[in-house]
Design goal:
single chain; about 400 residues; 2 domains; Adenylate/guanylate cyclase domain-containing protein
């Protein structure tokens, strides 16, 4: 079945959920990882025993306290007991199994077998919800898959981050080993679920509003500024957004990390990310991503990007624990996709970061021209450099002029 067939299935409900689709192999998780099992008593004879039914536990088996708590938490999070197989969920949403699997894979779910009772009524309702948007013409098939993948990838990273933070807190507050803290989290988490869920929805709505303002309402003003600052630069012209793109890269991070134990390295990474996130958000920018010892950020104007870049450089220079950072920023056009950014502007900013001295901020000559009339900044040209992919460029060191820069708590 080709992509057009799958799209047609999403647009048009089917009466039976893809009965022809062959039994699939579990790809990313075993059934034991997906469904909690009972723990047999020490004296139970399990030889030749068949798997217990969903309706009754075997007389010789009991659930441990830990698994009982985990089972209760799972039921709460999933909205009920697992009672449905994948074909039943797909059929209930009016989809073939192949089409349903495309959406589940976009969400990052493992591919279970036909006999695995792994889904709830909430799974079916969620699947039907996204499909109904396509059938109503609110989303195209491609947009539905892309939006679904965004949700899956972002929430996956979010829950890993939250779980690790909670485990670390238990280790610190209760003085228990990491392995013990991970088990205790199961009983600690139920009291936090509602508050975390409310905060997620609140943050999503605020971030969605801010994203609409950045990427739609104020986009045209940025493009006009980009045309003025980069007139005649045809390489950037096809890209839709104008942004200040910056990188901050910790100096000597690799050698430092080799000398640190797990706890110290975790503290350093957390301190680095927290400080970057605070400065970038205060400056009105957006932290695109962190990769080890490097952070990528954007801002809507050259001045905002310059303020953030100078604040980052100063913060790391003055920090008693973190090493200094090399920072670079370039104003130009970018493509925003999949939560990341692309284009020559991003590549040039990365190249300039490698040229910067520890504690210094570099911009290119065109970004410097956009900042030249702003007395908050001092611009000092440096010798020309031959940069791979760009030829000869003229770096300019950015320094503080008038004013005090970003005000941080």
């Amino acid at each position: 079945m080709n992509a057009e067939d799958v799209q047609q299935e999403i647009r048009s409900p089917v009466n039976d959920g893809a009965a022809q689709t062959p039994h699939a192999v579990v790809e990313n998780a075993t059934l034991e990882e997906a469904v909690l099992e009972t723990v047999p008593d020490s004296g139970a004879n399990t030889a030749g025993a068949s798997s217990p039914s969903a309706d009754a536990a075997p007389a010789t088996g009991t659930l441990s306290a830990e698994r009982l708590a985990a089972k209760a938490l799972e039921t709460r999070l999933l909205g009920g007991e697992r009672t449905l197989r994948r074909r039943e969920v797909a059929a209930g949403a009016g989809l073939s199994l192949l089409s349903a699997r495309k959406l589940w894979r976009a969400l990052g779910f493992p591919n279970l077998g036909d006999d695995d009772v792994a889904f709830t009524e909430r799974d079916q309702a969620a699947l039907a919800g996204i499909v109904n948007l396509v059938r109503a013409g609110e989303l195209t098939e491609e947009a539905a898959i892309s939006v679904t993948r965004a949700i899956g990838q972002m929430t996956d990273r979010m829950v890993v981050w939250q779980i690790e933070a909670l485990v670390e807190d238990l280790v610190h507050q209760q003085g228990v080993p990491d392995s013990v803290a991970r088990k205790r989290l199961v009983s600690e988490l139920p009291s936090l679920v509602d508050a975390l869920e409310e905060m997620l929805l609140y943050s999503w709505r605020r971030q969605l509003n801010a994203g609409v303002q950045r990427l739609a309402v104020r986009a045209e003003a940025g493009l006009i500024s980009s045309e003025e600052g980069r007139e005649g630069d045809e390489d950037d012209a096809p890209l839709p957004l104008a942004r200040a793109v910056g990188f901050a890269d910790l100096v000597s991070y690799t050698s430092l990390s080799r000398r640190m134990n797990e706890k110290t390295l975790a503290q350093l990474v957390q301190r680095f990310e927290n400080k970057c996130a605070e400065i970038i958000s205060v400056g009105g920018g957006r932290l695109v991503k962190t990769v080890g010892d490097e952070v990528l950020y954007i801002a809507e104007t050259p001045a905002a990007g310059a303020e953030i870049s100078l604040a980052l450089s100063q913060a790391f220079t003055e920090d008693e624990i973190l090493p200094q950072a090399r920072v670079a920023m370039v104003w130009g056009r970018i493509l925003s996709r999949l939560g990341d950014i692309y284009g020559p502007t991003v590549n040039l900013a990365a190249r300039l970061t490698a040229l910067a001295d520890p504690g210094a901020v570099l911009v290119d000559s065109m970004t410097a021209a956009a900042l030249d009339q702003d007395d908050r900044f001092v611009l000092s040209p440096r010798p020309a450099e031959d940069v791979r992919g760009f030829g000869e460029i003229h770096p300019v060191q950015l320094q503080r002029g008038r004013g005090h820069g970003l005000v941080l708590d």
